[in-house]
Design goal:
alpha+beta, 10-stranded antiparallel β-sheet, 28 helices, 45% helix, 14% strand, binds arginine, binds glutamic acid
Length: 746
C-alpha cells in the first residue's frame, strides 16, 4: 500500500469551471467525462441507467476507488488491475510488441501463445511502463492567471508556459510522483494529473494470435466480432511497493484497488462503464473542417496507405519469416487505414456536415439575439472558414510528409537514428551513444526487409511526385533532378542499393570506426537531412502561420459555443487523459432492415474458421474444447459468450479499458468500435456508434480451460452480483461501512 497522505482536497470547482460545464442534459452514450467531475455532472444520469455505485466509488482521493485499478499502459493503451498481486489485463494488440519482442521462429509466442508457469517465468520488458493516476485537480485559475483576451497567441502561450513552470516548481509532490498539466476545451481550461509510473512490467500470459487476433484485419473495426483480444502482464514494485526499474528482488505490486470479475454476464440494457485513457477526438470542429477531413484529408491518407499495404501484404503472404517481421507494422498501418475509410462512410451516412451546419445556424441565430456576444464572436465562423481553405493543401502536404517519411517508408528510420546520433556525438560521449544507437538499429533491422521497403519507396515516391507540387520538396531531390521525368527505379538504386542503410553490417562498421564523414555522404542520409530541412524550414512555418491563429479561433469558438448554447452538453475532447464513458449493452441497425444483436458466441468463432488461413485459423485445442462443449462456469445457456457491443463513447487509447458493471466489477475488455461508428471521433451518433468488447468470461475461460493457467485464475476474485451475491470491495474491509451512504449495494 502506498504511504498516502493526501493534501487537503484543493478547491476544485471554481466558478469559471462551473460556468463552462453547466447546465447540460447528458444522455447515455456520448461523452468522455473527467472522473473527478462525475459527482457534479453524471452521477444522476448514470444511476438512472442502472448504476448502483456512487461517484465516490468511481473516483475518490480519500479512499481506494475504481480509479486506482485503471492503468495507462505504456502511454498508448489502457489496462486494469484484476488481482491483489498486480495482475494487469489489457488487449492482445496492446501487448503485441512485447509479445513479439520475446518471440522467435523457434519460440513463437505470437503464434503459440505464452503462459508463465510460475512467477519467475514472467518475462521482463525494458521499455514498458504502467501509469496510475493518483489525483486530478482543476488548475485553470493558476494556469490562466494574468492571461487576457488582448494578448497575441504568442504572448498567451508564453504566459501559460511560465505559469505552468512556476506551478510545477511550487507543487508539493512525492519523489515518485510526476505531474502532468493538460489543456481542456481547446485551452479554455487546465487540469492537473498527478501520476505514478511503474517501470517493471512483466509479460504473464497471452493467447495465440489465432485467438487474440482472430479475424485480424478482415474483421478489424467490424461486427459481428469473435476475437479474444487480451493479454496479461504484472506490475512489480520495490519492497516499499513503489516504482523501481527491473530487479529480481522486486515483488508483485500490492494495488490500492483491483477489479473483481463478474461471472454473471451481460444482457441488452445492462449498464456499462468504460474507464480508460482515450487518445484524441475533435468533437467541436466546424462543419467545413469536418468536410475537409471527409473529402480531402482522409482520402489522401487512405490512398498512401493503400499502396504501402498492398506491397507488404504480398510479401507477408509469400514468406512466413516476413509475416512475423511485418505482423506488428502491418497491423498498425492497416488499422488506421481502415478506420479512416469507416470514418468517411459514417460521416456521410449520418450527414455529419449538415448536422454541424445546423448547430452553426443555431449558434448564429442565438448570437443575433445577444448583441454583446455577436460583437465578440460574429465573424468567427467566417474567419475560420477562410483559414481552413488556406490551410488545406498544406495540411495534405503534411500528411504526405508524415506518412511517407516518418511512417511508411522505413529506410528513413535508421537514417533518422544516425542523424540524431551524429548531432549529439562528441569526443567524450561517442562510445556510449554509439552503443545505444546500435542497439536501437539492431531492433529495427531485426524486422526489416529491404526488398519490401524498396518497393514501398518506389510506389510512394511516385504518388508524392504525382500528387503534390514541388514547392516544398527536399533540396536533394530538386538538385539532383530526380523529379524530372522521375524514374523511381533509378531513385531506388541510389537510395537503396547504394546506401549503407540497406547494409547494416557496413553501417555498424562505419559507426565503430568513427567514419562519420562517410555516413554523412550517404545519399539516403543526405536525402533525409534535406527532408527534415524542407519540413522544418519550408512547410512547417507556413503551416503554423495559419494553424496558430486557427487554434486560437478554435478556442474562442469552443468558449463561444458553451456560452451561446448553454443547453447543449459539452464534454472535453479526448487528450490521452483519464476518462469515464458510460452506456448500455446494445446492438444497432447497420442499415435499413438489418439488426445487429449485441452478443457473439464461440459457435460464431467456429463458423468463421478457415484451416491454414492467416486470419481465420484456429488452434486444435480450441476446436477440441468446442467439440466437448467444455465451458464450465463460463457458459450461458450452453453457449460460450465471446464479444459484445455497447453504446459507450470510446476512441483509440481505450483499448484494454475494463468494462465495468453497475456494481464495480469487470464484465469485459474494450478493444474496438464498429466501422461506421469510428466517426464518433468527430461526430458521435447514438444510432450507429458502438464499442466492441471481449466478454470477461471468454478471457477467463481461455486462461482456465484453454491454457490451464490455474495459478492465475486463483488470484482473481469472482463475484455474482446479479445473483445477489455481494461483491465486497477490498476497501470495504479497511473502511467499515458508513451508515449514511446514499447507495448501498453490498
Ligand atoms: N481497431 C482496434 C484499435 O484501433 C484494434 C487494432 C488491432 N487489431 C488489428 N487487427 N490491427 O486498436
Ligand atoms: N483499438 C483501439 C485502441 O487501440 C480502440 C478502438 C477505438 O479506436 O475505439 O485503442
Amino acid at each position: 500500500m502506498f504511504p498516502q497522505k493526501y493534501n487537503i482536497m484543493r478547491k476544485i470547482f471554481f466558478p469559471v469551471l462551473l460556468s463552462f460545464l453547466l447546465p447540460f442534459t447528458a444522455l447515455a452514450g456520448e461523452g468522455m467525462w473527467l472522473p473527478f467531475l462525475i459527482g457534479q455532472l453524471n452521477e444522476a444520469d448514470m444511476q438512472a441507467l442502472g448504476m448502483k455505485m456512487s461517484a465516490e466509488d468511481i473516483y475518490s482521493v480519500n479512499k481506494g476507488s475504481l480509479k486506482d485499478a485503471i492503468v495507462h499502459f505504456n502511454g498508448g493503451c489502457t489496462s486494469s488491475i484484476i488481482s491483489p498481486q498486480g495482475l494487469l489485463l489489457t488487449n492482445h494488440h496492446c501487448g503485441f510488441s512485447a509479445i513479439q519482442s520475446h518471440s522467435t521462429l523457434q519460440n513463437n509466442y505470437l503464434q503459440d501463445g505464452f503462459w508463465a508457469k510460475k512467477q519467475s517465468d514472467e518475462l521482463r520488458n525494458d521499455h514498458l511502463v504502467a501509469t496510475f493516476i493518483d489525483r486530478i485537480e482543476d488548475v485553470t485559475q493558476e494556469i490562466l492567471a494574468g492571461v487576457t483576451d488582448k494578448m497575441t497567441t504568442k504572448q498567451r502561450q508564453n504566459k501559460i508556459a511560465q505559469n505552468i513552470k512556476a506551478f510545477k516548481k511550487a507543487y508539493a509532490k512525492k519523489k515518485y510522483e510526476e505531474i502532468l498539466i493538460k489543456p481542456f476545451f481547446k485551452g479554455n481550461q487546465y487540469i492537473l494529473f498527478v501520476t505514478i509510473t511503474y517501470t517493471d512490467v512483466r509479460l504473464v500470459g497471452a493467447p495465440p494470435s489465432a485467438i487474440g487476433k482472430f479475424g485480424a484485419d478482415t474483421d478489424n473495426w467490424e461486427w459481428p466480432r469473435h476475437s479474444g483480444d487480451f493479454s496479461l502482464f504484472r506490475i512489480y514494485a520495490n519492497k516499499d511497493n513503489l516504482p523501481a526499474d527491473y530487479s529480481p528482488d522486486n515483488q508483485p505490486l500490492r494495488p490500492k484497488h483491483y477489479l473483481p470479475v463478474s461471472l454473471d454476464g451481460v444482457e441488452t440494457g445492462d449498464f456499462t462503464l468504460v474507464y480508460g485513457f482515450p487518445g484524441r477526438t475533435d468533437e467541436y470542429l466546424p462543419s467545413f473542417a469536418v468536410k475537409q477531413i471527409q473529402d480531402v484529408i482522409d482520402p489522401a491518407r487512405i490512398e498512401i496507405r493503400d499502396h504501402a499495404l498492398k506491397i507488404m501484404d504480398k510479401a507477408m503472404r509469400a514468406d512466413p519469416a516476413i509475416r512475423l517481421q511485418y505482423a506488428s507494422k502491418y497491423a498498425r498501418i492497416a488499422n488506421y487505414w481502415k478506420k479512416w475509410i469507416g470514418e468517411r462512410t459514417g460521416l456521410k451516412k449520418t450527414h455529419a456536415v449538415a448536422k454541424k451546419e445546423k448547430i452553426e445556424a443555431e449558434f448564429i441565430q442565438k448570437l443575433a439575439q445577444k448583441p454583446q456576444l455577436a460583437q465578440k464572436y460574429g465573424d468567427l465562423l467566417d474567419e475560420m472558414d477562410g483559414k481552413y481553405q488556406e490551410i488545406e493543401f498544406l495540411a495534405v502536404y503534411r500528411e504526405y510528409f508524415h506518412e511517407l517519411f516518418f511512417r511508411n517508408i522505413e529506410i528513413f528510420k535508421p537514417a533518422n537514428s544516425l542523424r540524431r546520433f551524429l548531432a549529439k556525438a562528441n569526443q567524450e560521449n561517442y562510445q556510449p551513444l554509439a552503443s545505444d544507437t546500435k542497439k536501437s538499429l539492431e531492433r529495427f533491422y531485426k524486422d526489416y526487409q529491404v526488398g519490401v521497403d524498396r518497393e514501398v519507396f518506389k510506389s510512394l515516391m511516385q504518388l508524392f511526385t504525382d500528387n503534390v507540387c514541388t514547392a516544398y520538396f527536399p533540396d536533394y531531390l530538386l538538385a539532383n533532378r530526380y523529379l524530372e521525368g522521375y524514374d523511381t527505379e533509378q531513385m531506388a538504386t541510389e537510395f537503396y542499393d547504394k546506401s549503407i542503410f540497406a547494409h547494416p553490417e557496413k553501417l555498424y562498421q562505419l559507426i565503430d570506426e568513427k567514419k562519420t564523414d562517410e555516413i554523412k555522404k550517404d545519399p539516403t542520409y543526405r536525402l533525409f537531412v534535406d527532408i527534415i530541412d524542407a519540413y522544418r524550414t519550408k512547410l512547417t512555418p507556413e503551416y503554423n502561420g495559419i494553424k496558430a491563429p486557427l487554434d486560437s479561433m478554435q478556442r474562442q469558438y469552443m468558449a463561444a459555443l458553451m456560452e451561446v448554447l448553454p443547453e447543449k452538453k459539452f464534454y472535453p475532447d479526448a487528450n490521452g487523459t483519464m476518462r469515464v464513458s458510460y452506456g448500455q449493452v446494445e446492438g444497432y441497425q447497420p442499415k435499413d432492415g438489418v439488426q445487429y444483436l449485441p452478443k457473439t458466441y464461440l459457435s460464431g468463432v467456429i463458423a468463421k474458421y478457415v484451416p491454414g488461413d492467416y486470419e481465420f485459423d484456429l488452434p486444435q485445442r480450441l476446436l477440441d474444447l468446442y467439440e466437448a462443449k467444455d465451458y464450465g462456469r463460463y457458459a450461458e445457456n450452453g453457449r460460450l459468450p465471446v464479444n459484445f457491443l455497447g453504446s459507450n463513447h470510446t476512441t483509440g487509447g481505450n483499448s484494454g479499458s475494463p468494462v465495468i458493471d453497475a456494481y464495480g466489477n469487470i464484465i469485459g475488455l474494450n478493444f474496438d468500435r464498429v466501422w461506421e461508428g469510428t466517426m464518433s471521433d468527430l461526430n458521435y451518433d447514438r444510432s450507429i456508434c458502438r464499442n466492441i468488447m471481449v466478454d470477461i468470461r471468454y478471457v477467463i475461460w481461455i486462461m482456465d480451460k484453454y491454457a490451464g493457467a490455474q495459478r492465475l485464475v486463483d488470484e482473481i476474485k469472482f463475484v455474482h452480483p446479479k445473483a445477489g451475491q455481494k461483491s465486497r470491495k477490498p476497501w470495504d474491509e479497511k473502511h467499515p461501512k458508513k451508515k449514511k451512504r446514499r447507495h448501498r449495494w453490498w
